[in-house]
Amino acid sequence: MNKVMLIGRWTREPELKFTAGTGTAVCTGMLAVDRKTANKDGKYEADFIPIVIWGKIAETVATYSGKGKLIGIAGRIQTRNYDAKDGSKRYVTEVVAEEVQILEWVKNNQDKPSIDMTMIDDEDIPF
């Protein structure tokens, strides 16, 4: 079984792109998830987890959520590797969202910067 449930805050604006071949939306970002217990100094730490969201929900998240906003993600851990442009092998572990709950919405989209609608080539996606 491969199931992950996270509640955290975006560390930066979620990035929305579309694949060139199919036009499928993909939203990526980093989620800061607080740890439940304090460290030996009494401070709470966070883990920073890369998130990938596909399809229509990716567009919704990019439009109505943003940096610092609370979001809930349920999905699966995915590991993959690819050859970087410099020839080195890269390894990635990320959470692919299957369900998303926006817990803090961007108000009237006023505090949200414009969305980068960059098209990416399907061949450039390393998975």
Commentary on this structure:
The protein is mainly β. It has one domain (4-36, 44-106): Beta Barrel (OB fold (Dihydrolipoamide Acetyltransferase, E2P)), CATH 2.40.50.140. The chain contains one helix and seven strands; from the N terminus they run E-E-E-E-H-E-E-E. Strands 1-3-4-6-5 form a five-stranded mixed barrel. Strand 2 and strand 3 form a beta hairpin. The model has no long low-confidence stretch (mean pLDDT 89).
**C-alpha termini separation:** 21 Å
> How many strand segments?
7
Low-confidence stretches: none
Nearest-integer average pLDDT? 89
CATH homologous superfamily heading: Nucleic acid-binding proteins
Sheet with the most strands, sense and barrel status: 5 strands, mixed, barrel
- Look at the structure and give the CATH class: Mainly Beta
Structural class: mainly beta
Query: How much helix is in the residues?
Result: under 10%
Kindly identify the CATH topology. OB fold (Dihydrolipoamide Acetyltransferase, E2P)
